[in-house]
Structure to design on (347 residues):
């Protein structure tokens, strides 16, 4: 089946590059290319594409507002095609938190020859995004109910875990913002592998740090893991794991892909299972594929509390589904309740 794509990009040169590159793929059809948000909105309404590529740094418009309207009025898989400047990366991270499913970095030079040296990556992103099916948006729970869930997580941590490990992929930045927003400021040390381009990982950490009670930062080699801190894998060619005995610390090591990824959720979870065992909590969130399923099973077999995000609140149910099918998840919960389960064994 042909994947129908609408490109929204203000640069005529970049529109031409994108159109030319994607048109080479036999299963992808560029049905329209818009120069601004107004054109893009009209084309999306009329053509109902499978995937939208969006440059959120277009002059004369607020790309984040445009994305938010897309997700509210006509939820469509959106891939952010962004520059690698700090401003572009920060905007991309906020867009991922609003529901964009992935991001592709433009060349810093912006030239036609180098911008798509790995053009197959963009095509692969589009193929994955086309499989995303958004669940109908539900009315938010009453404010009192939401406040009660959050306060239970923040103010009364029962059986405090020594370490929390989280894995996520497609749709994960949005899910992480919700999950970490319910974490207490003095949460147990928390480690995250989110499948993200390394150019955008620092901006994702900053965005989560600005919107969540604990401190969120990129993990560094041998960094001590302390309460109130969340450590995000840098997203480069290094796997993230845990080391140490009395004082846990972050381990970063180069290696081949595991379960198709570097960094790999399976590597993180297996490391935590081996070193922390029953004193840990493992959480597997939305994502394509099966990375993290075997690692979560290893954690469960060591006695850790293991939690998978439910299908209704996942952007893509692949990773949690794989874990559930292995019997790795002791709890299956909507994203808004996972923090409570992480801190309350009998929740």
């Amino acid at each position: 089946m042909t994947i129908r794509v609408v490109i929204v990009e203000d640069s005529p040169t970049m529109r031409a590059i994108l159109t030319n590159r994607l048109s080479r793929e036999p299963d992808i059809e560029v049905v329209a290319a818009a120069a601004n948000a107004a054109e893009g909105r009209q084309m999306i309404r009329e053509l109902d594409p499978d995937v939208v590529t969006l440059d959120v740094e277009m002059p004369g418009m607020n790309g984040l507002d445009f994305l938010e309207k897309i997700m509210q009025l006509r939820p469509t898989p959106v891939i952010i095609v962004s520059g690698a400047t700090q401003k572009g990366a920060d905007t991309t991270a906020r867009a991922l938190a609003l529901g964009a499913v992935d991001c592709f970095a433009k060349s810093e030079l912006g030239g036609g020859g180098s911008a798509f040296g790995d053009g197959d990556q963009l095509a692969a992103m589009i193929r994955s995004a086309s499989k995303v099916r958004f669940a109908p948006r539900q009315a938010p729970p009453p404010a009192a109910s939401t406040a009660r869930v959050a306060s239970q997580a923040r103010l009364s941590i029962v059986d405090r875990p020594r370490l929390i490990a989280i894995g996520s992929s497609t749709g994960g930045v949005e899910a992480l913002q919700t999950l970490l927003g319910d974490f207490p400021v003095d949460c147990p040390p928390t480690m995250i592998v989110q499948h993200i381009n390394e150019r955008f990982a620092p901006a994702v950490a900053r965005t989560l740090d600005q919107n969540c009670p604990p401190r969120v930062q990129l993990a560094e080699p041998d960094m001590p893991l302390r309460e109130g801190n969340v450590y995000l894998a840098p997203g480069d060619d290094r796997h993230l794991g845990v080391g140490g005995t009395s004082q846990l610390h972050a381990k970063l090591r180069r290696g081949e892909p595991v379960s198709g990824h570097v960094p790999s959720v399976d590597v993180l979870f297996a490391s935590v299972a081996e070193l922390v065992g029953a004193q840990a909590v493992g959480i597997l969130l939305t994502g394509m594929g099966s990375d993290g399923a075997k690692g979560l099973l290893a954690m469960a077999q060591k006695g850790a509390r293991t939690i998978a995000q439910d299908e209704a609140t996942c952007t893509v149910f692949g990773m949690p589904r794989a874990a559930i099918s292995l019997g790795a998840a002791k709890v299956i919960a909507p994203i808004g309740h996972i923090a409570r389960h992480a801190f309350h064994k009998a929740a």
About this structure: Residues 143-343 form a domain with the Rossmann fold fold (CATH 3.40.50.180).
